[in-house]
Amino acid sequence: MPKLKTKSSAKKRFRLTASGLVKMAPAGKRHNMRKRSNRMLRETRGMEIMHPSDAKKICANYFHV
Fold first, then answer.
1. How many CB atoms lie within 10 A of CB 24?
2. pTM (two decimals)
């Protein structure tokens, strides 16, 4: 049986760490920044670790690990 391909949508949105955790970009940074507080803009910089219950679904359905 051939290898399963990783979903292209998951490749663009998530990264797996060496320890198997799922990293993602925080939500709310696509548009309408002027409405957002400076604190919210600061706190949503960079990447964050996904909650384990959500990460389990992502790994099972998209990364095939």
1. 16
2. 0.77
